[in-house]
Design brief:
This protein is α+β, with helices and mostly antiparallel strands. It has one helix at about 1-25; strands spanning about 30-40, 45-55, 60-70, 75-80, 85, 90-95, 100-105. The strands form two sheets. A four-stranded antiparallel beta sheet has the order 1-2-3-6, with no helix packed on it. A three-stranded antiparallel beta sheet has the order 5-4-7, with no helix packed on it. It is elongated.
Length: about 120
């Protein structure tokens, strides 16, 4: 009987610990937000970029993006649900995507920054 009683107490403590963890764990992706960063391509060129996002439904987001100061020989690529294209203009929006990423690339052919 003492083993069963100890296991029961351990089980209750585990449930309480897990409940506390679930209540305090941050969400994988916030429902909305904005951020800015400076991306550096493989040649050392930089692009200052910003993006916003707002959850719509079923894991989709809408938002905006913008490019600020960018060095010569640098361009920005956008990944919209894994479809990659070069940014046209200095700002834009997306109405319904699961994923949106930006990166800076060198037109000298040396490579791109990590996706952000």
């Amino acid at each position: 009987m003492p083993i069963k009683r100890a296991f029961g107490a351990l089980g209750a403590a585990t449930v309480l610990s897990l409940s506390a963890l679930l209540l305090t764990a941050p969400a994988a992706q916030a429902d909305s937000g904005r951020g800015c960063t400076k991306l550096t391509d493989k040649s050392g060129g930089t692009a200052e970029v910003c993006k916003t996002w707002t959850a719509t439904d079923n894991g989709y987001y809408k938002g905006t993006w913008s490019i600020g100061v960018m060095t010569s020989y640098t361009y920005v690529e956008l990944s919209k649900d894994k479809a990659v294209s070069q940014a046209i203009g200095s700002s834009g929006s997306y109405p319904r995507l699961k994923e949106f990423w930006m990166r800076a690339c060198s037109s000298l052919g040396t490579g791109c920054s990590a996706w952000w």
